[in-house]
Specification:
It is built from four helices and 31 strands. The protein is mostly beta strands. Strands 24, 25, 26, 27, 28, 29, 30 and 31 form an eight-stranded antiparallel sheet that branches. The chain has a seven-stranded mixed sheet with strand order 15-16-19-20-22-21-23. Strand 21 and strand 22 form a beta hairpin. The two termini are 12 Å apart.
């Protein structure tokens, strides 16, 4: 378990941040069921189980999919044998090793939602340098109750820790409890850091989430499916995490293929039987761009589906998208292209083009057989000059609105003693680039790929009269740039 370092400047600018890691117990990369593990075992990510004594108690820890309050999981802690000679009880604990430039005369507060039927045993604590503040005990009502504790921040150097459990001197009870959420905040008074009521916004991004989040990349699966790649900070993880505009973090597993993969022949549904596909009301069309969005599930507040739409995420479309999918309920993940628009031929016009995406850059890796270049054709003819002036849209020869730079692919095919072409892009110098391969007596293909801004367009000038094409072989999406920091 790595150290959690908290930068106080972020806390000052984001006072609503939960500075704990995995405070909603959604991430379980170490396993989901622990049968009496040793003390100091990491259970849910970021959380250690602590128990001690001459005869340590027997304690099992597991991820609960049924006893959560806000979902999708709670942590279950069950003591099946009380042990003896205890000094610190039984708890789950998370250390915050350092808060840089600790804000003096402010309060660190913990808020916990806990459920148990055992009275006067379970509570929360917060510790700074050996000074401990405890919450009141849970009443044993069998329902979720809010437990809070606050402590004044001082100059202690021994670190900070937050614990939830049977925190007492002496033997603990045979008992069990479920913890739905733990939130730690900083405020100018104890009340500033305490969240009251049922809705604790436990799925909101923590400070570590904000520092390490990377939007998941889209990935090509087949000619009818695209998906999202795992993006969690542990290499062994198979989860896909999406952060929504309101800071909510939602996750699906690699095995949730109906959620993490969009099938272009199916319809998306975020309620009832969840499914990823095109939005209701549209169907697969040839030579069309689709914007891919993550869309919050209405039935499971921890999940999302993928939906393809012909409405791009332009600012002018925000109101439409909010009405269609719900405010703060959608996130743009990138564009995919259905169809190559083969010049002078046919085929593959209803196939999702193979691509690689990273951050805001997408490169197509699909071509017509062995021909060059990759991607989808935007213009083509058999005369000596070929021009493409960009049009904004999602159709056959359009480029989507938020694309800023294009990897232009060009091709010439035919025979002749002067097979070649020059490329002139918009306001660029008229000589452009010149490629020649003289003396061809049979059909040959030549091509080159260059990066130009979309607004320039492209012009090809052929030395002989042969077929030419201009393709979009890749692009930089301005709606996604700046989201490339990696989870680690």
């Amino acid at each position: 378990m790595g150290r959690r370092i908290v930068n106080n400047s972020l806390l000052d600018s984001k006072p609503d941040l939960n500075i704990l890691v995995n405070g909603s117990f959604r991430v379980w990369n170490q396993g989901v069921d622990f049968n009496n593990p040793p003390s100091a075992t990491e259970v849910a990510d970021g959380w250690l189980l602590y128990k001690a004594g001459g005869t340590p108690p027997t304690v099992d820890v597991a991820r609960s999919t049924t006893n959560f309050e806000n979902g999708p999981y709670a942590i279950g802690i069950q003591c099946t044998a009380g042990g003896s000679g205890l000094t610190d009880g039984v708890s789950i604990f998370q250390p915050l090793y350092n808060i840089e430039k600790r804000p003096m005369n402010k309060y660190l507060s913990v808020t916990v939602r806990l459920k148990t039927s055992t009275a006067n045993k379970w509570r929360a604590s917060i510790n700074i340098g050996g000074t401990v503040s405890y919450s009141s005990y849970h009443t044993g009502s069998g329902n979720y109750e809010t437990l809070t504790a606050s402590i004044l921040i001082n100059h202690a150097t021994n670190g900070i820790g937050v614990a939830v459990g049977m925190l007492q001197t002496g033997d603990v009870a045979v008992s069990f409890a479920f913890v739905d959420s733990v939130i730690v905040k900083i405020g100018t008074s104890p009340a500033d850091g305490v969240l009251e009521g049922y809705n604790l916004t436990v799925s909101k991004a923590s400070l570590k989430d904000l520092l390490t989040y990377r939007r998941p990349d889209l990935e090509w699966v087949s000619i009818t499916e695209i998906g999202v790649a795992p993006n969690t900070y542990r290499l062994s993880a198979t989860e896909i995490v999406v952060m929504f505009p309101d800071g909510e973090m939602r996750r699906v597993l690699g095995s949730d293929t109906n959620l993490r993969r969009m099938n272009i022949t199916e319809t998306a549904a975020n309620t009832g039987t969840l499914n990823s596909g095109l939005r209701s009301g549209i169907s697969e069309a040839a030579n069309t761009w689709y914007a891919i969005y993550a869309w919050k599930s209405l039935d499971n507040d921890g999940k999302f589906v993928l939906v393809g739409d012909t409405t791009p995420p332009s600012i002018s479309n925000y109101a439409t998208l909010n009405t269609r999918y719900g405010e703060n309920a959608w996130v743009f993940l990138g564009y995919v292209r259905n169809g190559m628009n083969v010049f002078g031929g046919s085929g593959q016009d209803l196939d999702l083009l193979r691509f690689n995406q990273h951050a805001g850059v997408t490169i197509f890796v699909t071509s017509v057989g062995s021909r060059y270049p990759m991607g989808t054709t935007l213009a083509g003819n058999t005369t000596g000059t070929l021009n493409y002036t960009p049009t904004t849209g999602m159709g056959t020869t359009d480029l989507p609105d938020t694309i800023g730079h294009v990897k232009w692919g060009t091709q010439i095919s035919g025979t002749g003693s002067g097979l070649g072409f020059s490329i002139t892009g918009g306001v660029l110098p008229t000589n452009g680039f010149l490629f020649e391969d003289s003396g061809k007596t049979s059909v040959a293909y030549m091509g080159v790929e260059v990066w130009y801004p979309k607004t320039y367009g492209l012009e090809l000038k052929n030395t002989i009269t042969q077929a030419m094409t201009i393709n979009c072989a890749g692009f930089i999406d301005l709606a996604l740039v700046g989201q490339a920091c990696a989870l680690r």
